[in-house]
Amino acid sequence: MPQTTATQDRSAWKAWKQYCKSLKTSPWRDDPDANSGRDAIGHGRETYLLAGFLIWSHMTMPARGGRLVPQPQSAMNRVTAIRRIHDREGWKMVPSSALQTVLKGLLRIYVEENGPEGLLVRHKQPFSR
User: Fold this and answer.
1) How far is the CA of 36 from the CAs of 31, 56, 97, in angstroms?
2) Whether this model's pTM surpasses 0.90
3) For the segment 2-56, what is each residue's pLDDT rounded down to a tens digit?
4) 54 and 75 Cβ atoms separated by less than 8 Å
5) Are 91 and 29 in contact (CB under 8 A)?
6) Number of DSSP helices (H) and strands (E) in the chain, helices first
7) At what angle do helices 72-88 and 3-22 cross, to 10 degrees?
């Protein structure tokens, strides 16, 4: 695994453990029936937990790149890291497509408050001839 991925996973896991501790639940989401949807109530609980983590991450993580607030995709990257960690341990979590509505809402709020240019990737301009 690349070093940057491992670093991102460690950081996300630390935040995930803190979030789960605040809710008095285990960070390991190891109920296959709930995660697959066979248990509808459990599936809703797991989806709600990940959606809450997405929102909580966006509210608590630091902004980077000269921005005032973090980008919503940065918070989604944390969720992706948690899903990757569970996957390595053999546990499938609820699909990330279940979080798309929440992510779109965060993006809409971000654009309303910061403008669409806040979502642009900031790179140095290439040298011209």
Assistant:
1) 9, 24, 13
2) no
3) 888 999 999 999 999 999 999 999 999 999 999 999 999 999 999 999 999 999 9
4) yes
5) yes
6) 5, 0
7) 90
